[in-house]
Each structure stands twice: as structure tokens, then as C-alpha cells.
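The instructor's notes for this session suggest beginning with a concrete chain rather than abstract definitions. Hand out the sequence below and ask the class to guess, before any prediction is shown, which regions might be ordered.
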Amino acid sequence: MTTLRYSSQRLAYGVVALAIGASMLACSLIPGSGATVGTPTPIPGATTSSSAAGSSRELRSGEAATGRLAANSAEVFSVKVEEGQALRLELDVEGKADDLTVGVADGTGKVIATQSSVTGKRLTVVTGPLAAGDYTVTVTNTGASEAGYTVTATTGDAETVGVLPVSEEEAAATAVAAGSDPTPTTGEISGPAGGDVGQTACDHPYFPMRPGATWIYDFVSAEYSGQYTMVIDSVTGDRESAQATMTANFAELVITYSWTCTRAGGVQSFDYAMGAATGGGLAASNMTGEGYFLVPADQLVTNASWTYSSAGEMTMEVSGQSLSGSTTSNTTQTVAGVGGSYDYQGATLTDVVVILSEQITSVSMAGIETPGVETTSTLEFARGIGLISSASGGEYPSSMTLVSHNIP
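After discussion, reveal the predicted structure:
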């Protein structure tokens, strides 16, 4: 492979993964990320605890399997699903349930959107109706210590198997509706009421961009690992139309994104979607596009789908030479689930939206055009917090998990 062709492919990776990309904003808030809340991909480079390289343990519906995972290791299972059935995975964990992540992929390696919840030491993961075939389930221990677990697989009707267990909050709401007294709960985190914006149009209920808002993630890919931080530096405008500036830091990279937000349309950043990174010899400029990364909250209903696209100029420094070119990206966002719950730092997030993001990014550099890089990501947003996990599959898998945040 020539240096130029390698560099061009590296650029395509940078667009999808360096923007921390394809995962959040990948959709593009970050290249990849995953967490217990949904469908994280296995950690690239983690030790796989299967019987042989490339093999997996068969797990039939109704059966349970036990295992122990060292820190940053994974085990792979194979589950057969009939046409139209949903898949349910229940993991009882000896240690912290939120240290384990579960990824589901079809026979082609495409990431399947899931919803999940953590109750005590049990992690439950469900899918919607699936096509017939063998599905790969990857259980990964992202914690710092060994974890023992028992996993049970169930396949069947999506209306029963594909439904998460009822949380205490939901049970309380049902009790109120029936006229009885609800059971008091503590430690609950809830976002702004209603589906409208907050302080400005950029203060989205599921992505509250306010001055000083900060999110810190653990990011892992085959190329990079470490903490990724996003900070909202400034916000101007009102509840109808606003603009926000975001600074992201990852290792030696400093990335600046400009966001445009409207009450009627949603929030979008075309340079964020493309990964306009400064550092590592990669930069994007003159970004244009159409559509929104995240539509208004009242439009985030199951199976809702929308598209957005962006294009711009790219430059890369290679061996002292400056290469220039262009890039385009087309993304389809689909809401895979609404209203899930998740235990986070001792509290319960009771309103989680899961979005499946499918993106195709193409790069033309110094006369060489790279094939479109396809990335499928699962993004999970919690009301009042923002992105809590992201997982990207495809050619450049990566995962990202929220470890701390501050929303003023």
C-alpha cells in the first residue's frame, strides 16, 4: 500500500473515528462509545475468553452459561434466532453490573440496536424483532477487576421477550394511576419536564448544551484509548434560535465544534458531524450541510427516522507534506427505543432514548477517492444529561462510556 493511499484511508478513519466519531454524532459526537445502557461493541484488543481464536460458545434459548472475565476481557456467544423473534439477555453479575457491556451483532457483523437496564446486580438487554439467523453476543468486562457472571438467553415474541423489566418508578406510576399509594424512591435523576427546549434552543432535553456543561467519557478503539472531554464554552441566542461553541479534548487533540440550534428543527453541527479535529495533522474546514443531528424531543418516538448530511474540505500533514481534499457524509438516524432506565452513579436514569445511526463517509484526497466508510452506531441519551453511551461497529469499532458530567 502506498503512503498516499494509506494516508487517505487514515483520513477516512479520522473522519469517522477521530471526531470521536461515528459514535455519537456518527452521528458524530464522538467516534464511538459504548456502555451498559445499550449496545456497546466489545473493546478492541481485549482478551477474548472463547475456546479458540475466532470461536464462540453456543447459547440456546432458555439456557444459561456461567463465566469469569478478567479486567478488559470479553467472551463471545452465538445465539440462534427465528424470523421475527426478539432476543433477551439477562446477566447476573457477582461484581458491579455496570462494569459489563453486551454487544449484539448479526452474521455480517452489523451492530444490532438494543435497550438495556440495570437493576441491582442484574443487567437486562433486549432487542426488537430480528431476521432469522445466528447472532453474536459479546460480553465485555470494562471494569478494573475480575467479574463472574451468569448469562441467560431467551428468544420469542417481541411484545414479551423484547420488553425491559418494569422499574420501581414505572411500578409507582402504575400504582398512582390505579389509585394506590406509590412506593417512595430515592436517588432518581430526571431531566427537564416536557419535550420543549430549556434556557435556549441549544438546551435540548436529551443534550443540554448550556455554558459550562461538561461530559467526560472513557473512549476505547483499536487505535486509541483514554478519556474524552467535551465542554460547552459559550451559548448565544434564545429559545427559538441559538448557537453554541464546544471544545473537546482527547490526548493531544483539541477539537472545536460550532453548533446551530432551532426550537423547531433541533440541534446540529456539521463540523462536529465530520470531525473537524485540529491535531495529528488532520483538519476540516468550510463545512456545510443540511438536516439535524438530534430532532426536538417530542419527535423522538420509537421508529422515528430522519437524515442529515455534511460536506467540507480536508487537509492532512503527512511526512512534512500537506495534502488537501474533500469529504462528504450522509447519516440516517432511527429511534430504536424510548423510556429505558439505567443505574448511573447510584441514581436511576428513567428516561433514556436509544438511536441507531448509520453513516457513510467518503474522502477524496490528492486525486485518490476512498470507498465509502460505513459505520453503524448505537447512541444512548438520558434526559437532562446527554449522551451516556455510544458504540460503533463496522470497519473502525469503538466504544464510549460516560464517567462523569456537570450540567449547570
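Then share the key points. The longest strand covers residues 321-344. The helical segments are 3-18, 168-177, 270-274.
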